[in-house]
Amino acid sequence: MPAASHTCWAAFLPDLKEVGEMRQTTRAFLRRCRVSKPVAEFVVLAVSELVTNAVVHGEGEVVLRITVAVDVVRVSVTDHDLAPAVLKEAGRDGESGRGIRLVDALSDAWESNGEETWCEFRDARAAA
Fold it and tell me: What is the Cα–Cα distance from 121 to 46, expressed in whole angstroms?
């Protein structure tokens, strides 16, 4: 695998049906980029949570961008909502409030500035 980075992106209107499609697309892209399976599973889960968050709480078109470089996988989800994603405490029976907390726990770094929420995963690629 060359040292260059590889990017996959998709833009779509907010629809919960897109969440499963983005998981499948992400999994296939990471496999082609030879991202280690354990890291790939964390990335797929983060994509699911961030896309769901954008569809449910965001505004307008959603854009998912995944970049795989030599030692990092970066996931970025944008929409047109200016309010940043925040860590929340979910109630015991609450139906929401766990997604960003999960991204925080799984990723090596994450941030939200409103329109964009991103996270990064350090990766050891599978041997060639």
Answer: 10
Strand runs (DSSP E) across 1-128, as ranges?
6-12, 62-68, 72-78, 109-112, 116-122
Q: Name the β-bridge partners of 111.
A: 118
Residue 29 φ/ψ, nearest 5 degrees? -65, -45
- Entry pTM: 0.88
Residue whose entry in the numeric block shows the structure tokens 């892209």? 29
Judged by DSSP in three states, 8 sits in strand
Q: At what angle do helices 99-106 and 37-57 cross, to 10 degrees?
A: 150
Tokens representing 116 are 């964009």
Query: What pLDDT score does 94 carry?
Result: 56
